[in-house]
Amino acid sequence: xxxxxxxxxxxxxxxxxxxxxxxxxxxxxxxxxxxxxxxxxxxxxxxxxxxxxxxxxxxxxxxxxxxxxxxxxxxxxxxxxxxxxxxxxxxxxxxxxxxxxxxxxxxxxxxxxxxxxxxxxxxxxxxxxxxxxxxxxxxxxxxxxxxxxxxxxxxxxxxxxxxxxxxxxxxxxxxxxxxxxxxxxxxxxxxxxxxxxxxxxxxxxxxxxxxxxxxxxxxxxxxxxxxxxxxxxxxxxxxxxxxxxxx
Length: 247
Description:
Layout: E1 2-3, E2 6-7, E3 9-13, E4 19-22, E5 28-33, H1 38-47, H2 49-60, E6 76-79, E7 82-90, E8 94-98, E9 101-106, H3 111-141, E10 150-154, E11 161-163, E12 168-172, H4 180-192, H5 201-210, H6 214-224, H7 235-238, E13 242-243
Parallel strand pairs: 3-5, 7-9, 10-12
Antiparallel strand pairs: 1-2, 4-5, 4-13, 6-7, 8-9, 11-12
Helix pairs in contact: 3-4, 4-6
């Protein structure tokens, strides 16, 4: 359902009160009595629109933000959660890990050339590392009776991953820079959408069953993200949604 400028999900329950919640992924969730009319729900959402926008603004503070990268010798780069110093060498294009360094060999040592070489290596690494991680997670989801999604690796500006209705699971290329436990969390999160397209209670119940420590992994992703300049979400807010009247 929608209200001017807002999309929200409604779940009806055997209860007398209507509750609005804003989840960390910016989903607006409305829990309504069985007999509540759509007009009454929309009026309540419009009435609380200022509060809802305030919670959305808070969560937007932690959306991925790309810090500046200069691709010069000595700069820190990340690979699977570990920090490496950048070493730049002249020669035929090659990237390899060498005792605490990411050694980038390029015909032209200019930053733009080094960036191209490094981004190509990240993509090759992601296309090698991500598939077996999806295989391992899929073994636990096979029971739901859905087709295994095909894996795509892309540069995403605002998401770590997505699952399309056509069965494509897309992972952000920059995930190759975070710890494996965080990549597993993103994959598990997206696979849960095979059964629950939205982010209602059913989704989070399945996520908790499939990955009991998902909150800790999510916090680690926020802390170790190569895309986030600001602080991670605090433990209190990072582990809960904002519920109307409880902030």
